[in-house]
């Protein structure tokens, strides 16, 4: 089949390179690169909103570790057999660099970390989340490259010319040699990058605020994850015939859409302040005095 489809996407021959005794894993590198890209974009958008440029890194100091831990916890809870099932190795639940981060856990725990960081910096979470939202989609897009290198989480067999070649060691048992699969990593990359561009455009055009950019991010991401998840064939727990992540996408996406509408009716336009406590007249006088000195 692959000989008839010369445009098929090849899989990388390896996902690990060694620099002396130190392994450089493509999955970990993709995650780190995604985080850097997200922070760069978030910092620019936060400055455009009138925020302190140093605030982004201070908040990320809390949000990123929380997000990574939360993503791993969600992955282990929803895919426990590889770690706690027959032949599983519980210690590997800690091996984040091998792959396996659940976006829902990452967002939930990351939000807690961001809330802590925002409180410590004296800024409100909703406007910072709005600045972050497009960067999250960019980070998720880049992170999917790790799945490509690991030859994992691909979709069902396909005869489309952009089908993905998978090495025999990673192919599902019983599939004939040369079978091509839907490159779900690529679908999600394209969807997320297009979604990030759409978010930035809508934010500038509609002057969204009060967390509505972030809520729209959730709607966009879950809409894509819904149909992409239904293409995947990796083992997953199901409920009423649908994968758990499909149900999660439906419920979370609808909830975010309702919240987007409700918040928009109550708070049209941008946030009136980024700070938890707006500066008082006395604060302004002290700033002016310090500047004069």
Automatic annotation (TrEMBL):
Q: Which PANTHER family match?
A: PHOSPHATIDYLGLYCEROL--PROLIPOPROTEIN DIACYLGLYCERYL TRANSFERASE, PROLIPOPROTEIN DIACYLGLYCERYL TRANSFERASE
Catalytic activity, EC: 2.5.1.145
**Keywords carried by this UniProt record:** Cell membrane, Lipoprotein, Membrane, Transferase, Transmembrane, Transmembrane helix
Gene Ontology BP term (one): lipoprotein biosynthetic process
Q: How does it sit in the membrane?
A: Multi-pass membrane protein
Compartments in which it is found: Cell membrane
Zinc in keyword set: no
Parts of the chain that traverse the membrane: 25-43, 55-74, 94-116, 209-228, 240-263
Q: Which InterPro entries match?
A: Lgt (IPR001640)
Protein's UniProt name: Phosphatidylglycerol--prolipoprotein diacylglyceryl transferase
- What's the stated role of this polypeptide? Catalyzes the transfer of the diacylglyceryl group from phosphatidylglycerol to the sulfhydryl group of the N-terminal cysteine of a prolipoprotein, the first step in the formation of mature lipoproteins.
Binding-site residues, a 1,2-diacyl-sn-glycero-3-phospho-(1'-sn-glycerol): 144
User: What's the family?
Assistant: Belongs to the Lgt family.
């Amino acid at each position: 089949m692959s000989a008839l489809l010369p445009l098929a996407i090849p899989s990388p021959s390896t996902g690990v390179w060694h620099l002396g005794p130190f392994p450089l894993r493509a999955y970990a590198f993709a995650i780190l690169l995604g985080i850097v890209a997200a922070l760069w974009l978030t910092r620019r958008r936060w400055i455009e909103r009138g925020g302190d440029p140093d605030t982004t890194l201070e908040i990320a100091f809390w949000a990123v570790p929380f997000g990574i831990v939360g993503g791993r916890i969600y992955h282990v809870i929803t895919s426990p057999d590889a770690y706690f099932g027959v032949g599983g190795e519980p210690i590997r639940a800690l091996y984040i660099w091998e792959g396996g981060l659940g976006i829902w856990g990452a967002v939930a725990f990351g939000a807690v970390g961001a809330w802590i960081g925002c409180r410590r910096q004296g800024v409100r979470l909703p406007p910072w989340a709005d600045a972050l939202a497009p960067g999250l989609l960019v980070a998720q897009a880049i992170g999917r490259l790790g799945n490509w290198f690991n030859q994992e989480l691909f979709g069902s067999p396909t005869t489309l010319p952009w089908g993905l070649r998978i090495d025999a060691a990673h192919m599902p048992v019983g599939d004939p040699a040369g079978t091509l699969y839907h490159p779900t990593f690529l679908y999600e990359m394209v969807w997320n990058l297009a979604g990030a561009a759409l978010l930035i455009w809508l934010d500038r055009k509609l002057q969204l605020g009060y967390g509505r950019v972030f809520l729209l991010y959730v709607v966009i991401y879950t809409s894509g994850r819904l149909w992409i998840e239904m293409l995947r064939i990796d083992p997953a727990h199901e409920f009423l015939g649908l994968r758990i992540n499909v149900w999660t996408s439906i419920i979370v996406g609808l909830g975010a859409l309702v919240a987007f509408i409700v918040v928009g009716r109550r708070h049209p336009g941008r946030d009136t302040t980024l700070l938890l406590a707006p500066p008082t007249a006395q604060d302004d006088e002290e700033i002016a005095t310090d500047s004069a000195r």
